[in-house]
Amino acid sequence: MNQHSLEGIIRLTRKVLFYALTIEAAAAVLFAIRWSFDMPVGQAVYYGVLHAVSLFNNAGFGWFGDEVSLSRYVGDWLVNVVAMTLTVLGGLGFVVLSDLAEYPRRRRLTLHSKTVLAASGGLILVGAAVVLLFEGGNADTLGPLNGSGKLLAAFFHSISARTSGYHTVPLAEMQQTTQLFLILLMFIGASPGSTGGGIKTTTFMTLIGSVISMVRGREDVVLFQFRLGKERIYHALTITMSAIFFVVGVTMLLSTTEDHHFMMILFETTSAFGTVGLSLGLTPDLTDFGKMVILLTMFAGRVGLLTLVIALGPKPSKELFRYPEGKMMIG
After folding, report:
1. Where are the domains of the chain?
2. How far from 227 is each of 29, 103, 121, 230, 233, CA to CA, in Å?
């Protein structure tokens, strides 16, 4: 969490507890009021608390019996808006929430918060547009919904893919183009210091900034008029390449041991790595070995590949010399 003193850790821990309990309590009340019209009050309160905690912490667990996830509320604005708000707040990270809470007094946001908010907003809008474009006419997903229902479902799945794990229409019936885009959203994931997984939005923005700087012929990578140090860029590249190799490796392994469609395996692997919880229905049909691989993938995705490498690898030592600079063709 980038806290380098005991005082900073204690202060942040207090904020984490306050924000988490306040947000989850408010959402639980709204859920309970809405669901009290569909079930006994006691059960509505119980379900309200369960889903508020699950959504804010990007867990993805649902408790509606034979109903799949939140499919029965695909057109319910209150349930969808509260669920999306919980997912977004949980995915922004507690550092950003603290920064936003202090904005009226400080009148400024940190580079981290600006980057997270810009990336999150952009990904949500683009994701919703893609889902609406390819699923708007699909009779098995968004097709039967009215105009506002389609818009609501498109935004819900754009947000859910990073990384709440809930859905309101059957993912297995979506176009492969949509499924592939959801895989990309799951791979990017939420933001640092949040309840979500993935390579994180700041890593994604650092890579985008690097590409833009290269195209424009600039030496420095600049985001919101701040120059990023080379160690940040190397960090982002290391995380991304490690994640790509890991997801591809697990997908190849499961493609060898499991007799299922490639897209289903890739979707399931990326969902596990991003700790998303979305599924095309493959996991229950996996072999015991396949389930163990998915389990380890979830663990690696939650802890972080770079954290595992640093924890298990040798301690870095200071280099006593540098090699001469070489040149080769790139691209």
Report:
1. 6-312
2. 44, 23, 22, 9, 11
